[in-house]
């Protein structure tokens, strides 16, 4: 049966058809939907792990036990999981183990633009890279076959455009693989130095065997073209751009396995064309390999190193006709991202801005607190860095920095990487104030559960971590909870905890306004006779409030009646609605 299917859903379908038994992941755009879609198949046990390292280790454990296993993450998540990844290359697997990593060229929802192909080369692991949904499904199934044939984890590299686009894929029935019983083998799985030394040659030989396989595999194919003055090597979504821009004019070497690369196939292809051009997003990975073979390959001299490519960019750089466009008659106003109407983080950030605090932030939708008019964030680095960074910041400045600087971190991010930072701050007697923004969900990636919500991936009730008890158990004596809709309470809490001469934690707790179970009040209404047009209500940056003809106006379709804006109005112009 053929079906129009999302790239991420195609990977999930591939897991199902390949007989995968366990999927453990941490949500991260653009990889999130893979595990969410996989959870729709009752044959696959699926879970959200606290972070990517835990997810990969859980998947490895399932593979060790004899079940085909999977984990997914975005590119920066692979940084977190790099420790087990490199050693799993040495241990190999029992049952098949596939790791999906989704890159985000142009940083649509990421803090950097790294190229995950470097991990495949550094960890000496095979990497497959599909260019559409059909290949996403097929390559997922192939990855399990390769994993078990070559005794290796296999990386499946997605990117934003392949993950979030739809194309036709051929669906098949699930094939249950033969059971692989666990057998005790310390020499293979106990990576003490003496064993690891003996495993390293096996890793190198495996890479040679994989390169030989890649030379004849159908995932790497040459598509002939009549004009051999130019030959193009490409992969992933760039293959689609090349075909749209050039059609079948030039020969194309389409690579589905991007590590190890097929040396002989590339040399033979280059010998048949007059000019060799590599079209790839990210770093000059394939281009660098070609140059290492002594080939005069062009690539990043033509195409940008930063951001995504497109059909038009490829056409322009390869001298093909570029389709014309039509400009809008009027320039559209800027639309910067803002926190949603009724977002529980808004009141807390307003208090931090009012108190002129230095705010070290973290990864989540609350990063939008850095945007005007709040502008209440000074740093965002990576998951969990807010607490560790705050500790170092305050230790460096001593009394000069104390009383002005806080860390903000979400509940999911705290469980991901914040706990170790808080343990370090407590252990090293940091005079710091940490604010956990507990909105009862993993918000930015689309409302996934986490260990603090009391529900698992499928929505079943499970044990719920008590943040207050956890912080106290880690050595924090001062722990308090505030409602971020209460501006006065937020301001008082921040003032008092900054004044305390010890480590403290404020938990700003209120569920995300977009959660289905959250019941809202009626939208507020503006009394035009009371409104003075002072714009005080605009200071919180709520998208439901605007100024028209000198008066505040509230969009009833967006307003959730949180009442935060009403606390700023000195003229009692914002009334409870009906």
List descriptors.
578 residues, alpha/beta, 7-stranded mixed beta sheet
Summarize the structure in words.
With 578 residues, this protein is of the alpha/beta class. The chain has a 7-stranded mixed β-sheet with strand order 3-2-4-5-7-6-12, sandwiched between helices. It has a 5-stranded mixed β-sheet with strand order 9-11-10-13-14, sandwiched between helices. Helix 1 (7-17) packs across helix 2 (32-38), helix 3 runs parallel beside helix 5 and helix 16 (385-397) packs parallel to helix 17.
**Total number of helical segments?**
19
User: Which ranges are low-confidence, i.e. pLDDT below 50, for 5 or more consecutive residues?
Assistant: none
Rounded to an integer, what's the Rg over CA atoms?
A: 27 Å
Strand content: 15-25%
Mean pLDDT: 96
Secondary structural class: alpha/beta
Q: How many strands, what sense, and barrel or not for the largest sheet?
A: 7 strands, mixed
Strand order of the largest sheet: 3-2-4-5-7-6-12
According to DSSP, the number of beta strands is 23
N-to-C span: 52 Å
- Morphology: globular
How helix-rich are the residues, as a percent range? 25-40%
Write a compact overview of the structure shown.
This protein is α/β, with parallel strands linked by helices and 578 residues long.
Topology (SSEs and partners):
Blueprint: E1 2-6, H1 7-17, E2 22-25, H2 32-38, E3 45-48, H3 52-65, E4 69-74, H4 75-80, H5 82-91, E5 97-103, H6 117-123, E6 127-128, H7 133-150, E7 154-159, H8 160-163, E8 166-170, H9 186-189, H10 193-216, E9 221-223, E10 230-235, H11 236-246, E11 252-255, E12 257-259, H12 263-271, E13 275-279, H13 285-292, E14 297-298, H14 311-317, H15 345-354, E15 358-360, H16 385-397, E16 405-410, H17 411-427, E17 433-438, H18 467-473, E18 478-482, H19 487-499, E19 504-509, E20 525-526, E21 545-548, E22 551-554, E23 574-575
Parallel strand pairs: 2-3, 2-4, 4-5, 5-7, 6-7, 10-11, 10-13, 13-14, 15-16, 16-17, 17-19, 18-19
Antiparallel strand pairs: 1-8, 6-12, 9-11, 20-23, 21-22
């Amino acid at each position: 049966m053929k079906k129009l299917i999302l790239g991420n859903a195609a990977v999930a379908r591939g897991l199902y058809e390949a007989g995968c038994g366990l999927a453990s992941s941490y949500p991260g755009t653009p990889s999130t939907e893979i595990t969410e879609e996989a959870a729709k198949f009752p044959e696959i046990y699926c879970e959200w792990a606290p972070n990517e390292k835990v997810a990969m280790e859980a998947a490895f454990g399932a593979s060790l036990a004899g079940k085909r296993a999977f984990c997914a993450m975005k590119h920066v998540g692979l940084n977190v999981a790099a420790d087990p990844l490199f050693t799993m290359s040495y241990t190999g697997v029992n049952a098949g183990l596939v790791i999906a990593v989704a890159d985000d060229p142009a940083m649509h929802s990421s803090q950097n633009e790294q190229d995950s192909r470097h991990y495949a080369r550094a960890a000496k692991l095979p990497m497959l890279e599909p260019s559409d949904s059909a290949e996403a499904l097929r390559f997922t199934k192939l990855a399990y076959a390769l994993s078990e044939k070559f005794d290796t984890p296999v990386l499946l590299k997605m990117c934003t455009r392949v993950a979030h686009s739809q194309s036709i894929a051929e669906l098949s029935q699930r094939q249950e693989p033969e059971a692989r019983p666990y057998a005790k083998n310390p020499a293979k799985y106990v990576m003490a130095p003496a064993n690891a030394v003996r495993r390293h040659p096996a890793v190198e030989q495996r890479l040679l065997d994989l390169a030989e396989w890649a030379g004849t595999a159908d995932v790497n194919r040459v598509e002939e073209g009549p004009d051999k003055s130019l030959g193009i090597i490409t992969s992933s979504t760039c293959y689609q751009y090349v075909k749209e821009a050039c059609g079948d004019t030039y020969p194309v070497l389409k690579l589905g396995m991007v590590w190890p690369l097929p040396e002989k196939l590339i040399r033979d292809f280059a010998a048949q064309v007059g000019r060799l051009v590599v079209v790839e997003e990210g770093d000059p990975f394939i281009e660098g390999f070609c140059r290492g073979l002594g080939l005069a390959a062009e690539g990043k001299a033509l195409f940008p190193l930063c951001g995504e490519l497109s059909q038009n960019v490829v056409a322009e750089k390869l001298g093909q006709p570029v389709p014309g466009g039509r400009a809008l008659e009027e320039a559209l106003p800027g639309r910067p991202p803002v926190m949603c109407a009724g977002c529980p983080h808004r009141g807390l950030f307003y208090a931090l801005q009012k108190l002129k605090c230095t705010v070290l932030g973290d990864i989540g939708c609350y990063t939008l607190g850095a945007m005007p008019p709040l502008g209440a964030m000074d740093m965002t680095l990576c998951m969990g860095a807010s607490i560790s960074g705050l500790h170092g910041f305050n230790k460096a400045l001593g009394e000069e920095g104390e009383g002005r600087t806080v860390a903000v971190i979400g509940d999911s991010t705290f469980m991901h990487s914040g706990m170790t930072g808080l343990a370090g701050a407590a252990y090293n007697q940091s005079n710091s104030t940490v604010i956990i923004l507990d909105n009862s969900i993993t918000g930015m990636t689309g409302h996934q559960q986490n260990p603090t919500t009391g529900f698992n991936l499928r929505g079943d009730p499970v044990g719920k971590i008590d943040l207050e008890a956890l912080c106290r158990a880690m050595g924090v004596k001062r722990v308090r909870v505030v409602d971020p809709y209460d501006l006065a309470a937020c301001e008082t809490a921040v003032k008092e905890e900054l004044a305390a001469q010890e480590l403290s934690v404020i938990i700003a707790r209120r569920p995300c306004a977009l959660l289905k179970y959250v019941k809202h009040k009626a939208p507020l209404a503006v009394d035009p006779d009371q409104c003075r047009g002072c714009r005080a209500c605009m200071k919180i940056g709520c998208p439901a409030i605007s100024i028209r003809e000198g008066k505040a106006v509230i969009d009833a379709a967006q307003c959730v009646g949180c009442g935060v804006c009403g606390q700023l109005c000195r003229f009692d112009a914002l009334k409870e609605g009906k």
